[in-house]
Amino acid sequence: MNEKNDLLLRALRGEYTERPPVWMMRQAGRYLPDYIKLREKYSFFERCSTPELAAEITIQPVEQVGVDAAIIFSDILVVPKAMGMEVQILEGKGPLLPEPIKQYTDLDKLRIPDPDQSLGYVFDALRLTKSRLNGRVPLIGFAGAPWTLLCYMVQGKGSKTFDEARAFCFTQPETAHRLLQMITDTTIAYLKGQVAAGADVVQVFDSWGGLLSPDDFETFSLQYSRQIVAALKDECLTILFAKGAWFALESMSQTGAHGLGLDWCISPQLARKLAGDQVTLQGNFDPARLLGPIPSIQKEVRKMIRSFGSHRYIANLGHGILPNVPVDHARAFVDTVKEWALAEKEHNTPA
Question: Is the pTM value of this prediction over 0.90?
Answer without folding.
Answer: yes
